[in-house]
Design a protein that fits this description.
By secondary structure, the chain is of the alpha+beta class. The chain has two domains: 3-106, Arc Repressor Mutant, subunit A (Orthogonal Bundle); 134-275, Multidrug-efflux Transporter 1 Regulator Bmrr, Chain A (Alpha-Beta Barrel), CATH 3.20.80. Helix content is 40%, strand content 26%. The longest helix is centred in the N-terminal third of the chain and has 19 residues, at 50-68. It is globular. Keywords: DNA-binding, Transcription, Transcription regulation.
Length: 277
């Protein structure tokens, strides 16, 4: 298997198992590789050691969990990721330069600055307003060609255009454009945010950069507007609507499905999808 594909699959595996006792040995064994070889290629492909990647993903996901579960005790969230109360506070402060308590208190359900455009402050709608545009859907598994993007989500638009131009021969009127986003840019350092740009394809397309995206039960928010407003809408859903909804996010990634992209007006028609249980 191509080494880049191995590393991408290992990143997926780590993100989906953050609440387990992950180690270099267990991950390398899962992919039937020696830990020395796996450690080397992981560092070469990502710029981070396996240990450093696991550690910062655990801390970042715990911060997301605070937003999604505002009534849950901080100590319990830390325990979910294998940290004692004192250790959790130390590693959280080192990563986010504030304590878990202050971070939780600073999470607003009304507004927030845009991390990649700090001069902008977005205002959230009410839970009822978000609910009016949300429906529950059962999505099917789908096979896609993808390109993994790691960096500032503000750069996704240009990367999308490059990706579409490179793969236009595999596209037709039935092609669906999708992206899997793994990080909350209000939590994760912008240069470390992960996103998969995807187009549906025939499993016999013959390319290596392919995968299956798992279906299941998803909440779907219908969005029609400017690309710059996607962040505001997603943050509102995660911060305002989801904690009150009674649903729980699963799989640790969201899915955006695009139906139309206007390059001239920088606007889109799309669904913002969150896997729930």
């Amino acid at each position: 298997m191509d080494r880049k594909k191995i590393i991408n699959q290992s990143i997926d595996y780590i993100i989906q198992h953050l609440d387990e006792d992950l180690s270099l040995d267990t991950i390398a064994a899962h992919f039937f590789l020696s830990k020395y070889h796996f450690s080397r290629i992981f560092k070469e492909e990502t710029g981070e050691s396996v240990y450093a990647f696991i550690k910062r993903c655990k801390v970042d996901q715990s911060a997301v969990d605070m937003k999604l579960n505002p009534k849950k005790a901080i100590t319990d969230i830390g325990l979910d990721y294998g940290y004692s109360s004192s250790n959790y506070s130390t590693v959280f402060r080192k990563r986010h330069h504030t304590s878990p308590t202050i971070f939780k208190q600073s999470t607003s359900v009304h507004s927030m600055p845009v991390p990649f455009s700090p001069e902008r402050v977005v205002q959230f709608k009410t839970a009822e307003e978000y609910d009016a545009q949300i429906e529950l859907q059962e999505l099917h598994d789908c096979f896609v060609i993808y390109r993994r993007f790691i960096g500032n989500y503000a750069d996704i638009e240009n990367n999308w255009y490059q990706f579409l131009d490179q793969n236009k021969t595999f596209m037709n009127e039935k092609t669906v454009m999708m992206e899997r986003f793994f990080n909350d840019p209000a939590v994760t350092i912008s240069s470390q945010c992960i996103c998969d740009l995807c187009i549906t394809a025939d499993p016999d397309c013959g390319l290596d950069n392919t995968m299956w995206i798992k279906g299941g039960k998803w909440i779907v928010y219908h969005f029609n507007g400017e690309i710059q407003d996607i962040f505001e809408t997603l943050q509102g859903i995660f911060t305002v609507w989801l904690p009150q909804s009674g649903f729980h996010m699963v799989q640790r990634y969201g899915l955006n499905r695009y139906y139309h992209i206007d390059r001239d007006t920088h606007s889109v028609v799309m669904d913002l999808c969150i896997p729930i249980s």
